[in-house]
Amino acid sequence: MDKIWVQGIFEKLKTKLTAECERNKTNIPYIPVNGRYENMEKSEGIFWWTNGFWPGMLWQMYNATKDELFRKTAEYTEVQFDKALEGFEGLHHDVGFMWLHTSVANYRLTGNDDSRRRSLHASNLLAGRYNPAGKFIRAWNMDRTGWIIIDCMMNIPILYWASKETDDPRFKIVGMEHAYTTLNHLVRSDGSCNHIAVLSPITGDCLETPAGQGFASGSSWSRGQSWGLYGFALSYRHTNDVKFLDAAKRIAHYVIANFAQNDWLPIVDFRSPAEPVKYDSTAAMISACGLLEISNHVGEYEKKLYTNAALKLLTTVEKNFADWNIETDGIIGKGTGSYHGKPHDTEVPIIYADYFFTEAILRILEKDFLIW
What we know:
The protein is mainly alpha-helical. The protein has helices at 3-23, 40-43, 53-65, 68-80, 82-86, 95-110, 113-127, 157-166, 169-186, 222-239, 242-261, 281-295, 300-321, 351-364, and strands at residues 130-131, 136-137, 147-149, 196-199, 206-208. The chain contains 14 helices and five strands. The protein has a three-stranded antiparallel β-sheet, with helices on one face. Strands 1-2 form a two-stranded antiparallel sheet.
């Protein structure tokens, strides 16, 4: 592992994120507009699923540097999230993304009692979405009562945290049952993943698997693969159920082969047409973190496969897509929300690419902490 390169990137992160914090002390960033972040609370709403990644990145940097600027800016966002708890009808399955990176992170690092209370509130909201007939946590709201998505694998760690924190097994049981259902309906035998499965809310039977954010039904949305890869690895960490580690490794091998096929440049969908080429750096950064997580749970020989692939993704994306100019917001470019998305979220800097890039760099340097 190239520790010299990684240490150099860490120094760049400190410089860039310090400048961004000075500009965005009261913003909740998402995608820069003309090189600068706008406040998500105004543009997309306090309920938007990505809102936790900015404070999560700052908590990671605070843990690594003890710079009070990072802590204070992260705490500001956490307090704003109280508006989302009060108007909870706008929340959905992504409460894990939102409160793991704010209140759970704060509580882990500082022992803040208010943060613990917020975290348990969010955990109960997620557990309340559980369908006991189908054994799944429903995605989104409105008429999607039977929908599950691969993304939710990254939200259920807040349930594992709540179960341990309260010594109450029901949270962990809900998380594990959802993970089993996801494994049965969204992970294919070759390690590729569906984004969505529509289940009967009465019986749990699978009715269809729509395209979702990938190219088409049956294709292979790269960020969906990364959510599955990292999510199942985390479920193994919290449960020690080897089925979850086996699933994570199966997805990882599929992902590694496909990234390598494209010279480690992350395309949006591994089964999309050759043209036009569309990139999604977020898939590579999430995968890198997932590969590093798997490496913690395998033997020394296997570890090299996962750590080397993670470093290849990090170095390739940084070389081709990074912006270290401290006058502009956003670090990792070429992030894409969905294959058929609109120009504003196609091949642009997206906050969660920066979060996972930062987490991966700090993991390699052993300066991270468990935010999941």
